[in-house]
Specification:
Residues 5-255 form the ABC transporter domain. The chain is α/β, with parallel strands linked by helices. It contains ten helices and twelve strands. The structure holds iron/sulfur cluster and magnesium ion (MG). Residues 50, 55, 180 line the site of magnesium ion.
């Protein structure tokens, strides 16, 4: 089957001035040659530390940001070649949910007006139909029709994220890109919102891209998970494959920090030192080599490619890809 979304060689380079006199032009490789596919009805988690390019990737998929290079195909349409008008239509079917719903909800508008807006933008329905849809969505996300008259500040963080989700659903999208949708919420509220998202996925046959910095959060919601480091995808596998048998040293390190509920299960503990290097001056070869306990000579020279090493499990690391076996 064809994937709903296909991403090929996606890159985003931001120009910067380097050096004391800023004579030398350079660029930050925020996203550097990322490829993946998303199938209808699944959830792809994308995980990594802040600055790894996961949000930039999400924004490029909707062309909120134009890629420097690469191709994005959604539902048979090449979005990276789409005109403004074609892109406007495509945005009915791809919606985003943001980390901070408060920042994305106009404080001077009622919830009813905020939810109605996407319908007006896309010319969907008359006033009566739009109102009906607003009430319907409020109920679906666990709020009530009387909330339509209230303003964003009258809601808790969890309720505001429900409103953000309702807004994303107004145009009956196929794909939701959720960028850290629960990161700003208390742990108890997080699971409520995650449960809601899972229920909605089943009921409305949604496909999710779920972006997070915490592997613990994406574990239960994701069918597959991609791990990003300094603008590259370094590992991509089924959720079980990744958690049971992580291959990339960076993934192993991220998982070392996730508590294991089963006392009989012990995980290889890998502690990485140091901070993420500056993306404006990334290390040569494997960009993880400055922090990797398994670094070999080849790692500083050759960029490892993301290669499938087991069925459905890809990794970009010289420990696995045979570069060393010559
Ligand atoms: Fe570590 Fe080398 Fe693998 Fe990079 S390629 S993660 S430096 S072993
Ligand atoms: Mg981000």
């Amino acid at each position: 089957t064809e994937p709903l979304l296909k991403v090929e060689g996606l890159k985003k380079y931001f120009p910067i001035k380097k050096g004391l006199l800023a004579r030398e032009a350079g660029h930050v490789k925020a996203v550097d040659d990322v490829s993946f596919e998303v199938y209808e009805g699944e959830t792809l988690g994308i995980v990594g530390e802040s600055g790894c390019g996961k949000s930039t990737t999400g924004r490029m998929l909707m062309r909120l940001l134009d890629p420097t290079e690469g191709k994005v195909t959604f539902n048979g349409r090449v979005l990276t070649e789409a005109s403004k008008e074609e892109m406007r239509k495509a945005r009915r079917e791809i919606q985003m949910v943001f980390q901070d719903p408060y920042a994305s909800l106009n404080p001077r508008h009622t919830i009813g007006k905020i939810l109605e807006e996407p319908l007006i933008v896309h010319g969907i329905g008359d006033a009566k139909e739009r109102k009906k849809k607003v009430y319907e969505l409020l109920e679906i996300v666990g709020l009530s029709s009387y909330h339509a008259k209230r303003y964003p500040h009258q809601f808790s963080g969890g309720q505001r994220q429900r409103i953000g989700i309702a807004r994303a659903l107004m145009t009956n999208p196929k794909l939701i890109i959720a960028d850290e949708p629960v990161s700003a919420l208390d742990v108890s509220i997080q699971s409520q919102v995650l449960n809601l998202m899972q229920d909605l996925q089943k009921d409305l046959k949604l496909t999710y891209i779920f972006i997070a910095h915490d592997l613990g959060v994406v574990r239960h919601i994701s069918d597959r998970v991609g791990v990003m480091y300094l603008g590259k995808m370094v590992e991509l596998a089924s959720s079980e494959g990744l958690y049971d048998k992580p291959l990339h040293p960076y993934t192993k390190a991220l998982l070392s920090a996730v508590p294991v509920p089963d006392p009989n299960f012990t995980r290889e503990q890998i502690i990485i030192k140091g901070d993420i290097p500056s993306p404006s001056n990334p290390p040569s070869g494997c960009t993880f080599h400055t922090r990797c306990p398994f670094k070999m000579d080849v790692c500083t020279q050759v960029v490892p490619k993301l290669e499938e090493v087991e069925s459905g499990h890809s990794v970009a690391c010289h420990l696995y890809n045979g570069e060393m076996q010559q």
